[in-house]
Amino acid sequence: MSWIVLFFAGLFEVAWAVGLKYTEGFTRLWPSLLTALAMAASLGLLGLAMKNLPLGTAYAIWTGIGAVGTVIAGILLFGESIAPLRLLSIALILCGLVGLKLSH
Question: An example of a Gene Ontology BP annotation on this entry (predicted)?
């Protein structure tokens, strides 16, 4: 169950990172409020997951989900680069996340 909670914590991290783009420097009320809620949800779920998962593993996977998800969101929502080196770098992060999960 902790792994599922951690996965959703990572998804909320992606949500708040993307939300930051829409806040326009926290000058837009609703995007700012939704971003703050996503931040709170992400950290809250991370804290719950860490009850049963090792600190280093949980934190690394949380940030990894956030990093990979945010890059994918940037590509899909904002037309960011899909250069081969960028995609390879994301694949390497995913390999590291799988390695951490398998070594737990």
Answer: xenobiotic detoxification by transmembrane export across the plasma membrane
Domain boundaries, the chain: 1-103
Q: Report the 10 Å Cβ neighbour count for 33.
A: 13
Give the global pTM: 0.92
In degrees, to the nearest 5, what angle opens at C-alpha 81 toward C-alphas 7 and 83?
95
Calpha distance 60→97 (Å, rounded): 8
User: What six digits make up the tokens of 32?
Assistant: 């700012």
Spatial distance between the Cα atoms of 67 and 90, rounded to a whole number of angstroms = 8
Instruction: Give the whole-angstrom CA distance, residue 68 versus residue 70.
Output: 5
Per-residue pLDDT tens digits for 78-91: 999 999 999 999 99
Cβ atoms of 62 and 46 within 8 Å: the answer is yes
The tokens describing 55, both together, are 């600190």
Q: Which helix (H) or strand (E) holds 28?
A: none
Tell me which amino acid residue 58 is.
Answer: A
Q: pLDDT of 1-19, one tens digit each?
A: 999 999 999 999 999 999 9
